[in-house]
Amino acid sequence: KSLSQNSGVNLASSGLQPVRGIFIEKYMGTKTTYNNRVRIDHNHNKAGEKSKECKEDAVGDTCNNLTFVYYLGRHGTRYPTEKALQRMLNRGFDLGVKNEDAGLLTLEGEQELYEIGKRFRERYNNTLVLPSGPGFGYHPKMYDFQSSQVTRALQSAHAFAIGMFEQTGRLGVSNSQVVPIRSDDKNNDILLRFHKKCKRYKTEVKKNKILNEEGHLAML
Questions:
Q1: Helix, strand, or coil (residue 105)
Q2: Burial of residue 172 (number of CB atoms within 10 Å: 0-12, 13-18, 19+)
Q3: What span, in angstroms and rounded, lies between the C-alpha atoms of 70 and 83?
């Protein structure tokens, strides 16, 4: 069954059948695209009723006095990691994903962050103007982009920046804008990958057998 026509991820197995009345794809959070997840939730709701996960959040007139915006986002839809691919192969599922693409953004994932960047610009273009005068655009003293040192996260940050500053730069025929993206070493990133440096998290959460067992039961 195809999980996404755009991502190129397909299950070469007919084993995706309702389990206890629940479609298993709803719980494949690291393999199923966000759009598919929203579609699944919509199908479980009444016709015309919006899912709680996709309700629009209006900003309101308070943006007229906006002085600072902080956006923290996760990467877009990605391919499974090599370990996840191997586990699925061991269970008889062949996704047809190349090893070199494991863990990277899918085309749909790139599009997701690109669209988020466009919506971000549309929402704040009247308040986040250049310091030199009227008009929306990029300036390094106004915007600071930071990503963890993981390829899919860097891809997401770049796609977001492309959408946000599309046709506002001076590079090429498409007026592209070059946006620097800062990234700390992933082994010493205490801001975005703090869990990798926190010994207490590793011992009390990650390696906690009770929590892991409860998390597994919650998926059933």
A1: strand
A2: exposed
A3: 33
